[in-house]
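Example 3.
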Amino acid sequence: MDEIKISNLQDQELLLLSKKMLLSLDLNEMKTIKTYYKKLAREPTRIEIETLAQTWSEHCKHKTFNAQINYAENGENKKINSLFKTYIKAATEKSKKTWLVSVFSDNAGIIKFNSKYNIAMKAETHNHPSALDPYGGANTGVGGVIRDILGAGLGAKPFANTDVFCFAPHDMQKEKVPRGVLHPKRIFKGVRSGVADYGNRIGIPTVNGAIIFDEGYVANPLVYCGTVGLIPKGMEKKKAKPGDKIVVLGARTGRDGIHGATFSSIDLNESASSSAVQIGNPIEERKMMDALIKARDQKLYSAITDCGAGGFSSAIGEMGCQIGARVDLEKAPLKYKGLSAWEIWVSESQERMVLSVPEKNLQKLSEICEIEGTQMAVIGEFTNTKKLELFYNNELLGEIKMEFLHQGLPQKQMNAKWNTKAQKEIRNLPPTNYGQILKQLLAMPNIASKESTVRKYDHEVGGGTVGKPFVGEQNDCPADAAIVRPLLDDWAGAVISNGINPLYSKLDPYHMATLSIDEAIRNALCVGAHFESIVLLDNFCWANPEREETLGELVRACMGCYDASVAFKTPFISGKDSLYNEYNSENSKIAIPGTLLISALGIITDSKKKVSMPFKHAANPIYILGNTYCELGASHFGKLIGSTAGSIPKVRFKDAVKTFSKLSALLKKQNPNSKIIKACHDCSEGGIAVAISEMAFSNTLGAQIDLRKMRVGERTSREDFILFSESPSRFIVEVDISQKKKFEDAMKGVVFSQIGTVTKNGKLQITGLAGTKIIDEQISTLKAAWKKTLGW
Amino acid sequence: MRKIEVAFSDSKLDSVGIFAKTDIKDDLLISGIENVSFSELYYLDFELDEKTIEQIASNVFTDPLVQKYSTGNNLIPDFDFYIEVELHRDVTDNLGIIAHEGIEDYLGEKINGEIRSAKRFYFKAKISPQDIERIAKEYLANEIIETYKVVKSG
């Protein structure tokens, strides 16, 4: 056996070994391993050390989210035993929602859909691989999350994908890009091609997404990929049984993606290895998917999981954790010769799934694989030894007790601190040319049209996309959320949206989190999702949490997640974290801003009742729901004028719940053939000025707005504050003129006001607080500004 | 080692070449490029007779309506230099694997040996060697997973 001698190593030597072998284990963890093997009176083997490193990686065990944290907030100390349990899981438990089928225990969260089916959703990140090879990294990000859905319960069938990216500005000066890092525009182009090529080729529509720009992402772009799938009721549970054969189904194993799981716990630096990059093959995954769904329907296997980070080591180790497993590594089909046993064991080659198959079903499974053009191999057996036993040509290479493998990891002890940042006063004078400011805002990359990217994705394949990414008469303006009907004989649809705004993290991650949740829910409500059906997924991307301040920011974000989730009664069903997103070289350290993607999944029982964003008819009244406050801290208007000053927008939960419930109830009740609400759009980046512009230019209509009619939460004479404030929980709504009263009656108790009317003159005209026109712009000019920035 | 090269027969259809020319001008700010033509290459490390290679090239790799192929000389004769990009040997080459499968399907028999794919960009351009290196490193090849070579005409 290939031994790694650790029993006599001193602390420094243990750390050096961890670094040299790319194990990403800290001193405490290395010492735990040393003590364990000392008790066994032997040294660990190479494959055992690799298995422990993979299983105990940040990626697989979420060590930071499960750590014991000493947290100091403004000098007050508090102990947090696991961020995950305290803030995420606790929020879900408190919601007591009866339609949650499986949460946090599987590859994906599962909720009820209709009488026969449930829906599974998962969102993942693929950041480090996308930094090295944008095309391949994004490609395999999509492939990976699709496999998560295939491995949820006994396998859900994917029917929609989502993708959210964070990049540095595409026009960043070359000199500002650190050595060894690809230019942001190259990363952007590579990532979007990678996503398009995988999603389009495998035949799953890409229906929702977002792109955020900030210089902090220059060395660590973020690539979030999500998938939603349909699973028949009763198939949400799985359990590998002793005696079942371990079957690997799909692609062969190669040397690609070695150490991906442990690599994700390391800061990026100037040197990187090709073996950390995975290479995707969507056609292979499609064949595997078709074979799996057939096998699932014939009940040929008792458990399934995907081969993701850590490869076989994570998949088999997890499936056999309660019972035990014996693996014969020489039986794994290989792409080429020359792989050592430990490489086969931890390789992250794509398009593979691991199944637990009763022996009597092997023949039938093999026949399905033959028909679908994919391959399977039996590489071992689940046992009742409570041990993981690894063989190569009958030679025992490693033997680890499942208990130590899964329970042996010591809880991490970490320190975090947060000091509230003093709010700066806004010092700029009000602008004199609001029209110009509005055009500049519309041209800011975060707000500008993303059509050139979204257009590359097939959002129609499958035929169920009823709420499409593009709306408006020229089919080129973005919808707030997507609606997909997974069953073409049922009008019920899954509504998919997202909320993300890392700019707010720079002031307070607590509010960033509540705002992101508010935004994701708002977006889903805009198209008609039922408020009471909405569930959330959390995806945290953060810098190095071993710095107290950085972890303190993460704690704040988790607290925000808890408060918003509980207030809105929208439970988390699944989540993921990607930490250590920073770049270190001799001369520079670049960390990403704390970034939280909230994906919302809701149900619309009759998707004929959906509402879209563009204004529909001239003369219809335009309303705003929700109060506007002077909240310009970290806003896009602030960014435009070079200031982060002002107060950060805050979610006022009580008011927001009222607005959301009443709006949602009305949308649910209205007659699809005579809708009261004709158009609905959320106010977010750029405030009401941007929201109304988008609604106007989507259908080449116009709008006349009077700021004096706005409901403001605090007295102000500043028109720029009202126009560009990013206060959350607000909607711009167009109401059918003949049903005004019905609308106003339905909204009783909500803060709302009619602020203008839809016009047909092709102009956006806004009257200021003094009664004079402060904006009078052709909507064609506004649209041109909005389309130009990213139109390549 | 045998080589099969495939490219579009009409340069108007060569979207990869057209995009490369635009991207190099817009993103790398290198001007002076008259034309870029793209071709796909398949290197076969097993022996087959001339006739079989021809049959494979025309029936497996080429769409005769829009593409042309060569099993010998460079497919695009008029160029100043070309940059050829291929994956490192230890990186999975899916195109090569599928090409191998395609040949086996066509011939109806198993083939021992490997196929590696590559991409070639032919340039009509009078630019400096430094700019050629920049195009290779900053646009065409990702050196973490790929390697490239520059070959001048003549």
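The longest strand of chain B covers residues 33-44. Residues 94-107 of chain B form the longest helix (14 residues).
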